Amino acid sequence: MKEFPDIIAWSIPAFVLLIVLERVSYLLHRDDDEVGYGGADTATSLTMGLGSLVADLLWKVPIAAAYALLYALTPLRVAELWWTWPLVLLAQDFCYYWSHRSHHVIRILWASHVVHHSSQRFNLSTALRQPWTGLTSWVFYLPLIVVGVHPAVVAFCGSVNLLYQFWIHTERIDKMPRWYEAVFNTPSHHRVHHASQGSYLDRNFGGILIVWDRLFGSFAPERERCVYGLTKNVGSYNPVRVAFHEYASIARDLRAAASWRQRAGYLFRAPGWQPAPGRTVRAAGPARPDGQTSSVPG
């Protein structure tokens, strides 16, 4: 079994140090346009991050088993050479784009990913606000296994992708050089992704590269001031509520649905989807805490 270093675990001390430094930078030089840090919000983000590490250990077993089985069945193999690594990382980033985009436009997937968007602040600690139900992404990387990429290589490239995205969760960096903004994901691009304005919803899904968004029509530049969070915020710093609030909302909608077609809509249509007017729906519980609807073209 191939083994690669767990770069995320090794990077945790650096994450903490950079968060502290960013927090100090706000104390020394506060910009009125930046929302900065909040004690309860940061504590929630850190708790969600620690919880995700524990949860990922549980999800890793069935995912690794499925990948190993498929890898054993496919006759193809991608050699680990100096020139194949950039190609595999590129392919992984492409799969990440479609995974990320799907997690915004399919509600049962959004129920997991909404955790990462639940903060109304945008700083390095927000990068650590990760879901505890990370079982929803693995299927998007099956094509890499099918073409012969070793599961351990897929996992390592995923860690590289996640590591890259840590630094783009900040308001302290305005714009990178134009050539870099054209190719790579940056703080400016990712601020748009975390914004709740209608013109910014469901934009800039790229991990390392922003070129996928430019190619597939989901790119939006940062123009107006970003307002972070959800279109209807959770209103709680309770980590359990943050982790599972959308699943609870889905359960309420499923109970209130009048048909299996409506139940399928509540699960697989975009967040915020409702049956067409005139169709009978039993009285529902409280409104969903995000109320987000998809604006992705196509």
Automatic annotation (TrEMBL):
Residues 86-218 form the Fatty acid hydroxylase domain. Its EC number is 1.-.-.-. It is a multi-pass membrane protein. It comes from the Bacteria. The keyword Oxidoreductase applies. Keywords: Lipid metabolism, Membrane, Oxidoreductase, Transmembrane, Transmembrane helix. It is found in: Endomembrane system. It is an enzyme of class 1 (oxidoreductase). Residues 277-298 are annotated as: Disordered. One of its GO terms (molecular function) is oxidoreductase activity. Pfam families: FA_hydroxylase. It comes from Micromonospora parva. This is Sterol desaturase family protein. The chain crosses the membrane at residues 7-28, 48-70, 138-164.
